[in-house]
Amino acid sequence: MNDIESNLWALAKEVEPIASQKAGARRSHNYLRALLDTGQMATRIRNSYLSGSYARDTAVRPLDDVDIIFEIDPAAWQTGLLHLRLLPLPARVLESFANAIRYRYPVSSVYGQRRSIRLELEHLDIDVVPAVPVGSDGSAYIWIPDRDSDAWIKSSPKRHSALAAEVNHIQQGRFKPLVKLLKFWNSNLPATIRTKSFAIETMAVRLFRGVRMDSLEQGALLFWDFLAHFAYQSNHFKWTQDYGVALGMFSVSVPDAAGTGSNTVAGMTSAQKTALLEKARISRDRLLAAQSARLARTMLEHLYNAFRA
Known about the structure:
Helix content is 47%, strand content 15%. By secondary structure, it is of the alpha+beta class. It folds into 2 domains: 139 residues, Beta Polymerase, domain 2 (2-Layer Sandwich); 147 residues, no CATH class. A hairpin with a 4-residue loop joins strand 8 and strand 9. The protein is globular and about 70 Å long. The two termini are 25 Å apart.
């Protein structure tokens, strides 16, 4: 393992949530799930499971947010004419969960968000997401409520976890550490350029389902070079396909790899996209400079700067 590779593995370990954060998150989400499995809510909730980067093992330090999916019986929220709807009113379901959590956590802050209820604890925020399974055949897809559009949106946390595990297996355990490094890089970008960490992970899933990497070093170089090629920069690799990603002049789209139909970079402006691609090019060039450096000190400087572009 060369110096760059060993340093990248060390950095991946450094950005990993520490054991006490993981233990605290585990205690808190299990306690909340147990509390909601009481009273009237117990008859309305059919199942619960973790979602998000914590569940996929792609979260970075600090671990301050955990998502929990609660699959519900939609009939429990339908009365009278509401039975004419296939699904209950999103705002009504979200408010029921908010009230149930406030009752069980009287001294904690609880507030509604667009598609979830947030419980703020001293060490952790927990986002509670009500959901209705799509069909009754064990499909991995679910409907989640959207307060703003008064609609139910298709999602698939189980498919997201399965895809991360699949690509990690294909890449012999290198994919998840690489995603953590790329999320760390994204978190160091200016707020006006930074994109959603799930979008970074989705780009990586799409790319590395089809492109092999033999090291974290190569994976980072491939990812940054892949982004840079959308800006028609000179490339280190030859790109013959875009793996479903569109970051060109006329289209900005990174479709959810789980096939829900959502665009994970929805809302990204042209200026933000252009700046993100330029930052990827800069980081790629710094990594290339680290590879050609003669002195260990110079190599480390270029490598350090690549992830803090």
